[in-house]
Write a structure and sequence with these properties.
Helix content of chain A: over 70%
Radius of gyration of chain B: 25 Å
Helix content of chain B: 25-40%
CATH class of the largest domain in chain B: Mainly Beta
Oligomer: heterodimer
Radius of gyration of chain A: 18 Å
CATH topology of the largest domain in chain B: Immunoglobulin-like
Low-confidence stretches of chain B: 1-8
Order of helices and strands of chain B: HHEEEEEE
Distance between the termini of chain B: 50 Å
Largest sheet of chain A: none
Chain lengths: 260, 130
């Protein structure tokens, strides 16, 4: 449990100490915040299922672990925000929810990952091999959600999108794609994937890297939408914002493939 | 998965899981209830002067801004003006970065003249929607 608490803290510290996240919880559309929380739940259950607190094999345990991670994160975030003086103990329920709920996204992912990073790896190795392509995509989406949700609250996303020309956006999308491929197959990180010998380089690139980027981009667009980052923007501008947030989402997705 | 682990580990996990379930669904329920309350009422900000404190050569007018609307406002602009009869003798502007719906924030104006000797008018000039 201490490990989960630590994991939650490490992963949510950047947004715990980012001013925009303290107010975004109120500014966000209530339904979109609810949808974001509901989308988080299956991501957590899947993460718990494939790695998690314990060597879970049954779905019921994974569900339990996911909710435990949420509880630990909520308590951790509330305590830290109280300590910072950001949260007032006399505040109304809405304020508590507004300030704590957003921290749950990276925090609870961190609480679950704390095990896969610092825990015993024996059972996961077996588990991972069984997860197949579906599991791979699943990890990538969770990794993308983590980094995208950590960075989307900042105003810099909109500023960067405004500074970039359409050509730079296209270049950024290509760089994101190339980095994903390099991270997973070339850079030599621990957990690097060996390219299956029976497939051509192009086939691997299309099957995992391009699909992975599409997934990361979709996650980025969803996170942008739920945080209201696309509101009032023309299609071209909205696309640019999604590409900018797609960059960390892609890196998160690639890193998740290595880590998990 | 060994049975032994299930026998020893789960109590704390069940407890935490239970707390998580309660927190998660209560949050979702509250968000949906909030969301169903209908369209946001625009910002309805009123300013109450709480006290005037002398500070060196200045006078600090401490105010409390109440937002009775449901919409969160950013960059709320407030102006304090001192009148001697019909003549405006001093004008100071202040801003509130962010004022959530059904909430309040405190702030202050620095005035050179003593507000007690003149007529003080404090008004909200405008705001932005986030």
């Amino acid at each position: 449990m201490a490990r989960a608490f630590g994991g939650a803290l490490i992963f949510s510290l950047p947004i715990l100490m980012t001013m925009e996240t303290w107010s975004l919880g109120f500014i966000m559309d209530r339904f979109r915040l609810a949808v974001l929380m509901l989308a988080l739940l299956p991501a957590l259950v899947g993460l718990a299922y494939y790695s998690g607190f314990e060597e879970t094999t049954r779905l019921r345990d994974a569900v339990l672990d996911a909710f435990a991670a949420l509880a630990i994160t909520a308590v951790m975030a509330a305590l830290i925000l109280l300590l910072f003086g950001v949260l007032d103990a006399r505040a109304d329920l809405n304020t508590w929810i507004g300030k704590v709920a957003l921290q749950a996204v990276p925090g609870s992912i961190g609480a679950l990952l704390a095990h896969s990073q610092f825990g015993t790896p024996s059972d996961e190795e077996r588990k991972r091999r069984e997860s197949g392509a579906f599991g791979e995509y699943f990890f990538m989406a969770a990794g993308a959600l983590f980094l995208a949700a950590s960075i989307a609250p900042t105003d810099e996303i909109l500023v960067i999108a405004r500074l970039m020309s359409p050509w730079q956006s296209i270049l950024l999308a290509l760089v994101s794609l190339a980095l994903m491929h390099i991270f997973v197959y070339v850079a030599g990180f621990r957990g690097q994937h060996d390219a299956p010998p029976e497939r051509s380089l192009v086939a691997i690139f299309v099957k995992f890297t391009v699909n992975g980027y599409v997934l990361a981009f979709a996650t980025s667009t969803f996170v942008c939408w739920s945080f209201g980052r696309l509101d009032g923007l023309a299609q071209a501008e909205a696309l640019q914002v999604a590409v900018v947030l797609g960059f960390p989402a892609a890196i998160g997705a690639a890193a998740a493939r290595l880590v998990l | 998965m060994s049975r032994a682990r299930h026998a020893t580990a789960p109590l704390l996990e069940w407890l935490l899981g239970g707390v998580g379930v309660a927190l998660f669904f209560a949050t979702i329920a509250l968000l949906v209830v909030e969301g169903l309350r209908g369209p946001d009422r625009p910002g309805e900000v009123s300013i109450h002067i709480e006290e005037v404190v002398a500070a060196g050569h200045a006078h600090i007018v401490r105010y409390r801004a109440d937002n009775r609307g449901t919409l969160t406002l950013v960059d709320v602009r407030i102006v304090a003006r001192l009148f001697d009869g019909d003549v405006e003798i001093e004008r100071v502007e202040a801003g509130i970065d962010y004022l959530p719906g059904r909430s309040w924030r405190r702030g202050g104006f620095f005035l050179r003249e003593d507000p007690a000797m003149h007529e003080l008018r404090v008004e909200v000039m405008g705001y932005q929607e986030p």
